[in-house]
Hints:
The protein is globular, with a radius of gyration of 32 Å. The relative contact order is 0.03. By secondary structure, it is mainly beta. It has a domain at 196-316. Strand 3, helix 3 (61-69) and strand 4 form a beta-alpha-beta unit. The longest helix is centred in the N-terminal third of the chain and has 12 residues, at 34-45. Helix content is 8%, strand content 25%. It has a 16-stranded parallel beta sheet with strand order 17-19-20-21-22-24-26-27-28-29-31-33-34-36-38-40, with no helix packed on it.
Amino acid sequence: xxxxxxxxxxxxxxILIRMSLIKIVENDTLGMHDQLRDLGRAIxxxxxxxxxxxxxxxxxxxxxxxxxxxxxGTDKVVALRLTGLSNVHHFTGEEFSxxxxxxxxxxxxxxxxxDFKNILSKLTWLSxxxxxxxxxxxxxxxxxxxxxxxxxxNITEDWTGWGPCLVSENLKVIRITxxxxxxxxxxxxxxxxxxxxxxxxxxxxxxxxxxxxKLEHLKHLQIESIDMVGxxxxxxxxxxxxxxxxxxxTPKVRRRELQVHDDHVAQINxxxxxxxxxxxxxxxxxxxxxxxxxxxxxxxxxKMSLRRTRIKELPNPIGELESLIELDLWGADITKxxxxxxxxxxxxxxxxxxSAIRELPKAVGMLENLKELKARKCRNLRGEIPSEIGGLSxxxxxxxxxxxxxxxxxxxxxxxxxQQLCLDDCNELEQLPELPVxxxxxxxxxxxxxxxxxxxxxxxxxxxxxxDNTPQLSEFRQRAPKMEWIEGLSNLESLTxxxxxxxxxxxxxxxxxxxxxxxITCVDVRFLMGLPSSLENLALYTVKSPMEGSLFSNxxxxxxxxxxxxxxxxxxxxxxxxxHLEKLHSLYVRDNEFLERLSVSGLKGLQxxxxxxxxRLTEIQGVEKLKSLxxxxxxxxxxxxxx
Length: 643
């Protein structure tokens, strides 16, 4: 758009970014601060206070409509928005003839009718949602068009608007979204300088015009089919001449079947991001479900996404992708990684989540720049993690949740930059080795508490999460878990200790002076010898003994209290308890099948009270005294008048 207007604001953009007035977000989208937007609008309004037709930009649809309809436009107007209007409007060539310098036009519905010869001749950006099935304009030719956006329409490959819109050598961006009737891409032969092509929400039966292979300057290709498709609805997105797209750097194809010839892959020598999410297969002509060996020739490739593909094996040349930074195999059918994976020296993110991977190769320890290793829900991942993983000195996150890993190596303590270790639902994990002191977040299954070593040396830990989710827990219930070391985690901010109706040993958490969030099984409240005054959120599970004032005596900053699955018939927050809980704003009582009476008269500052799944609860006392109460909710209780 800027280049088409002979404007090159590179230095100005950098200055505005440094001033935090604009930012470049995902997909190179330019975001503007509200203050900068308002400043720009104020400047435009002062261009002519009395006559909008003499302003450069008209963004208020009603004002813009009046200017067009009354033919009050001038050569000053360069941008026009005609969206959100109450009625459908058809605009004539005569009306737009008053806007000879118009560069940006945004339309919603309606049509263009009449003779448009030499009209909109300087238009560089056209955005049209709900565009008509038949364009009624004659002699329209958008020869300066740089950006074309069409959405929410049932236009087809025979749409009469393609001819007027696709005639510009300056056309760089085409974005077509939610046009389900489009079954074939239009003819691109007159806009061969196209750099970005996006087709979202298109039919799964989309065919590709032969001119597609001539788009030698195309850098970004994104094709996503309609979400709701069945397995039998796939069709082939056949690009037999994909090798002609030599400038292509970011292809992303989702929910399609992609066929690419082996000898063409290497010709895409500028490719740096390859996304084939949800593609049923990426094949050679003979139909083998694999990546071609020539994939190794993509020396500039930085990101490869093979999410939910049927590819079962990565070829050895994958190790030749010397620029690769991220490899995403989420949900893929791949069962093993080749030894050559260790040659990816620049790889920072390796995602194996939900894949069929069975083991990690020793070569994974050669990924010297790896920062994130994600293997969550790899239910075929069994046995031992190789000791070579200790060589990943820059690894920050290791996620093995819901895998069947049995042992972690003793070299785990060598991961000097590891901050997050997730071992939730690793039901077959036998014990924890010595862990690196750099850890800030540690999650593991509750059965490991009985075999865990003293972890009090993890003084940087801010989040400890231990949840009851392992069948082995029943084997340990006869003896108390080892928990004393938790008292020494002085930097802990969030602690979760939830494991059914296990009776804990005595523990004093007063020493955790930074603790803000605590979720804990509390079969007998007496085992909690003390809680820190810093606590803001407290959730108590499976309480069987009466809650005494001493439990809350130090909680002067508590604002949220949850009671889950308690086995009490009565819960009373009287005046004494209320004095300790002056800042309590929210009380949630859930899944308490024995609870019959709840008294909240002492909670003077309470603002939200929610009671769910307490079928025997027939009485709540003191609600009328809660002057600060803003929200009151009941669901599946025994209180008359409530569900």
